Amino acid sequence: MPAPQCATCHKARAALRRPRSGRALCGACFCAAFEAEVLHTVVAGRLLPPGAVVAVGASGGKDSTVLAHVLQVLAPRLGISLRLVAVDEGIGGYRDAALAAVRRQAARWELPLTVVAYADLFGGWTMDAVARSTAGSGRSRACCTFCGVLRRRALEEGARLVGATHIVMEPTAGRGNVLLP
């Protein structure tokens, strides 16, 4: 069975069906609808006032990439300026590829990027060091707790360094806080 026609433009074939509305949309119409919904949410909620300097927590993953991209598209209409802030937790073999992705995104979008490292912020402590210090103590499962608290503090420090008035991040970056004035 062929894909249905897009319910919005009626020209292209639908690429997806939106779960909430059930509408079948092509890629272009889905992106336009998503951007319009984000714009409405930000404006209606007065989340990012004109003139805001917004630090976007950038991990290099899909969630923060979509967040940064949609805000970069909407920034001229919102009257805001963006700064990317990435955190280097100091996890060997884990963070390098993601930080490289963030650097590529920053260059592609011509956005300033600041990388803050746990080692610089916390007296040489990295997540690798935290994991080693808790190994065998029965507290090794607490690494996620340490990392969440330290990441939140690192994002706040990165935002301060770039002169941000607001921090925006995907929900898991700060354990659920999406917008912080």
TrEMBL record:
Keyword Transferase: yes
Organism lineage string: Eukaryota, Metazoa, Chordata, Craniata, Vertebrata
Species this chain originates from: Equus caballus (Horse)
Gene3D superfamilies: HUPs (3.40.50.620)
GO molecular function: transferase activity
Keyword Transferase: yes
Protein name per Swiss-Prot or TrEMBL: Cytoplasmic tRNA 2-thiolation protein 1
Keywords annotated in UniProt: Transferase
Signal peptide: none
InterPro entries: Rossmann-like_a/b/a_fold (IPR014729)
